[in-house]
Amino acid sequence: DIQMTQSPSSLSASVGDRVTITCRASQGIGTNLDWIQQKPGKAPNSLIYAASTLQSGVPSRFSGSGSGTDFTLTISSLQPEDSATYYCQQRNARPLTFGGGTKVEIK
Amino acid sequence: EVELVESAGGLAQPGGSLRLSCAVSGFSFSSFWMTWVRQAPGKGLEWVAEIKHDGSEKYYVDSVKGRFTISRDNAENSLDLQMSSLRAEDTAVYYCARRSHNWSFDLWGRGTLVTVSS
What percent of chain B has a predicted confidence (pLDDT) above 90? Predict the structure, then answer.
């Protein structure tokens, strides 16, 4: 199975800060990597697919990059509504696997 | 409205069975792969099973193989997950999710809680 490792596991940042979350795959997955946001008590929501393409309706402050084994999710200017847990997920091979999540809190 | 709505989960005893359903509306159900993803209390997301749009292919995470069965009824716009030989570690919120044509999970249900306990 492909292991997905996210860092950090949590972070606290101020409104307007630039936030970066990293995700590393245990083997190369091309750009078969998606980012998912989950707000407390809510269902997950897809943010980015194919490593860097924003889903429809996702604010442009979110961006993704990377290929192979190393990926990054960036929030260019953190907003209060971005308080959530973010997961990376590989779909290069079954079983599909998720990273452990990064909890983003607003200071 | 485009939505996925899971049936109520509930409490099951270890070794028991439970069937989850996901009602689909607002899109052409028969055109999409569908997936079950679960989340144990306070934990991360885990892919459980998925099924091809026509039901001809099914895939499972190792921990549920031989115990869970995913199925679909395209005429009824319904996705099911039959769970048997349940274990305490199956306790989780179960989400049905649509795999888009770009293969991402682009639509999620609200989830349903399954608790396995004596």
Answer: 99
